[in-house]
Amino acid sequence: MTDANNKHETVLVVDFGAQYAQLIARRVREARVFSRIVPHSITAEQIKQENPVAIILSGGPKSVHVDGAPTIDPAIYDLGIPILGICYGAQLIAQQLGGTVARSGRGEYGKAKLTTHGSSVLLPEEVADGDDVWMSHFDSITEPPKGFTICVSTPDAPVALMENFDQKIFGVQYHPEVIHTPHGQELLIKFLHHIAGCRADWTMTNLIQESIETIRLQVGNGRAICGLSGGVDSAVAAALVHRAIGDQLVCVFVDTGLMRLGEGEEVVETFERTQGIELIHVKSGEEFFDALAGVTEPEQKRKIIGEKFIRIFENAKQKVSDANFLVQGTLYPDVIESGTGHAAKIKSHHNVGGLPEDIDFDLVEPLRSLFKDEVRVLGSELGLPDEIVWRQPFPGPGLGVRIIGEVTPEAVEILQKADLIVRQEIREAGLEREIWQAFAVLADVRSVGVMGDERTYARPVIIRAVTSEDAMTADWAKLPYELLETMSSRIINEVDGINRVVYDITSKPPGTIEWE
Ligand code: XMP
Question: What is the DSSP letter of 505?
């Protein structure tokens, strides 16, 4: 995927090790320019070989002053390639070119109001004094290097944007790549299109072509296996790998019986019939129900489902004994999440398709640098139906974590019906893409009601609908009352065994999105 054979223009995003580079790379892709992330140990000579159209120095750790703070070969400033430093990257430019980065002792985190100074080539025209920008820094540039002008400042950053137009070197202290900085993307576009003169002709189709080549190179004549969960990520990964290696890919779909109504058939329809992928469909609902009989403790349920899943997947895999590659739909946020060893375990996540550690496979992870919404675009380009591409996140253990108490076939049937109503009504109201997740939960209590002169004593359904950016935090969705009313009356009328519907108005934190 390099520009070594000059297939297309490349922007190099230099990684200083603090999770910013991928988001910047993604914004560059949105500006229709191909980007590649490189480590900060890259030399100016190596950069020259790559012949990039621009270089972006990303954010990084707290301070350029700490021992061992990452740096970059200063000869890059003499290459004549346009350079944009963001946050840490801007401080590094200041420090390396003779400006001053002061330990102010006072950081600036979150929103800050900007003040402009004179004209700027980089700043979008729409930006005005008093606009917000998103800050996250401890040190501040107090003195720009010679030849730079100060174009923007904020209360705690005297040099929030500096530029040296002659040398085409720019530094922004704030984060144009985050959505909280209004016109941030326009700033990046100005840098890429106007200053660096990029053609802006890169598309997802290029990405598909490049991924196909990379997958072919990796797999060669080997055989690959992919566990399908019905979710977007594994679906897109499978479709992409199938494009690359065709019959060398076999998919395994373990139908746990804990999926949403009609989901199993839909997976078979899409993959076997539409995409023509060889599919091993293991219907194993009964096995899961047997293993879950009498179990009510949430973590125990998750553990049982996870272990059973792996065992069944392993068995199915025996049928493809010559497979030496395993395809996984790992996305960039998954890479980050599993990389942060200090995060507290809230719930054990057993991802369908997730595998034991001792497995002897080479991983094929073609979506590793992408974000969810990019994967959706890719899925559509690959011809996957909207039902799969726009599917909301669904937990690996399925409805098993949405049934409080014992998971029985009857409980699953009730929940599947209620869940379908919730999703149908959300779609009908046109809210499907706005809502992160909307689903039903079956509670393990009974309450008294009256239906047609009869006293009832039955279970409630809880409707859960949340908005979220990334599921790390979430807000309960302010659904219109009329919509809630329709859901409620449909559930009561159409689902036997339910006599009450309640709406969960808890955000995350303190709640979680799922109930178990
Ligand atoms: P919580 O309930 O922890 O969920 O707020 C956050 C997001 O993760 C999904 N989720 C899971 N996904 N395997 C998964 O693949 C799991 O075991 C699992 N548990 C929760 C949940 O639907 C939400 O989007």
Answer: -
- What distance in angstroms lies between residue 466's CA and the mean position of ligand 1's atoms? 13
Query: CA–CA distance from 164 to each of 68, 90, 146, 153, 237 (Å)?
Result: 28, 12, 9, 16, 43
Residues carrying CATH 3.40.50.880, the chain: 4-195
Neighbours of 360 (CB within 10 A): 6
Are the CB atoms for 218 and 247 separated by under 8 Å? no
SS3 249: strand
* pTM of the model as a whole: 0.75
Atom of ligand 1 minimally distant from the CA of 514: 2
Query: Which residue is listed with tokens 């500006």?
Result: 31
Distance 394 CA to ligand 1 centre (A): 7
Q: How many residues does the chain have?
A: 516
157-164 vs 169-172, strand pairing mode: antiparallel
Residue range(s) of every CATH 3.30.300.10 domain in the chain: 408-503
* CATH classification code of 408-503: 3.30.300.10
Identify the architecture of domain 4-195 in CATH. 3-Layer(aba) Sandwich (3.40)
Active-site residue, 314 included: no
Which residue from 316, 265, 312 is spatially nearest to 291, judged by alpha carbons? 312
Pocket lining for ligand 1, CB < 6 angstroms = 346-347, 349-351, 393, 395-397, 437, 471, 508, 512-514
pLDDT in tens, 321-361: 889 999 999 988 777 655 433 333 444 444 444 445 555 78
Query: Can you tell me which residue has the tokens 């400042």?
Result: 153
Q: For the domain covering 220-389, report its CATH number.
A: 3.40.50.620
Pairing status of strand 249-255 against strand 278-283: parallel
Residues with Cβ < 8 Å from 140, sequence gap 6 or more? Answer: 101, 102, 104, 108, 156, 157, 158, 159, 173
Q: Are 490 and 449 in contact (CB under 8 A)?
A: no
pLDDT at 353: 42
What percentage of residues in the chain have a pLDDT greater than 70?
94
Rounded CA-CA distance 454/363 in Å is: 58
- Phi, psi dihedral angles at 433 (to 5 degrees): -85, -15
Q: Where exactly does CATH 3.40.50.620 map onto the chain?
A: 220-389
